[in-house]
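Incident log, structure service

09:12 report received: a user says their structure output differs between two submissions of the same chain.
09:20 pulled the input from the user's history:
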Amino acid sequence: MEHRHVDQLRSVADVESNLPKGMLTRRERLERWAELLEREPARELTSLGEIEFQPVAARGSLRADRSPLAVAFADPVLRTQGLTSDRLGDAMTFFNLSEHQAHRLLCSCMNGQSIRASMAARHVRSIAKGRTHTLLAAGALGAILLTPTVYMMF
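09:34 re-ran on a clean worker, output below:
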C-alpha cells in the first residue's frame, strides 16, 4: 500500500475532502503564500541565518524581521487558517514543509542574506506543485552542460 498526500491524489483521481468548509488545503496555503510574495516581487526579504548550524532544539524558534515567513504571517487569511507565528517551526508545521524544503527556501546559505520576493514565490510554487527538487536539478543540469564549454575555453 502506498501512502500519498491528498494533494497528490487530486492529480490522479476525484477526491472529496473531509476538511471543514473554508479550510485551505496544503497546496492552497502554499499558493496563497506565493501570491502574497508576488505582490511586491522586487522586495528584498531576509533569509534565516544558517539553519543547519543552529541546534536542532532551537531551529523551530528561528525567525527574522521581513522574512518570507513574516510575509505569510502578516496575512489574516493564513493566520485564520492556523499559522500561529513567523517562526520556522510553526511555518514548517502549517505549510507541511520538510527540513530540506524549508532549508532551500529560507536559509542564508542557499539564498545569501536576502532573497527577492519573486524568487521566494517561485520556490514556494515549486513546493506546492510537488517539484521540490526542480530548482536543484536545473542547477545541476546547467553545471553539467556548461562544464565542457568551460574546459574548452582554456
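09:41 both user submissions now match this output. Likely a transient worker issue. Closing.
09:42 reviewer note: The radius of gyration is 17 Å. The chain is about 55% helix and 5% strand.
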